[in-house]
Amino acid sequence: MFRLIAGRLATGIPTLLVVSMCVFAIVRLIPGDPARLLAGDFATEQIVDELRTRWRLNEPLPVQYAAYLGGVLHGDLGRSIATSTPVLPELTERFLRTLELAVAAIVVAAAVGIGAGLVSAVHRATLIDHLATALALTGISTPIFWSGLILILIFSVTLPWLPAGGTGTLRHLVLPAVSLGLFGAGVLARQTRSGMLEVLGQDFVRTARAKGLPERLVVVKHALKNALIPVVTVLGDQFGRLLGGAILTETVFSWPGMGRYLIDAISQRDYPAVQGAILVFAAAVVIINLLVDVSYGVVDPRVRAE
Amino acid sequence: MMATPALRRLARHGGARFGAAVVVVFAVVALLAPWVAPYDPEAIALGSNLQGPSWRHPFGTDSLGRDVLSRTIWGARISLTIGFVSVGLAMVGGVPLGALSAWTGGWTDRLLMRGADVLISFPTLLLAIVVITIFGPGLDHAMLAIGLAQVPLYARLTRAAVLRIKVQHFVEAARASGAGEWRILGRHVLPNCLPPLLVQTTLLFATAILSAAYLGFLGLGAQPPTPEWGTMLAKARDFLRTAPHVSIFPGLTILLTVLGLNLLGDGLRDVLDPQTAA
Question: In A, which residues are within 8 Å of B138 by CB distance?
Answer without folding.
Answer: none
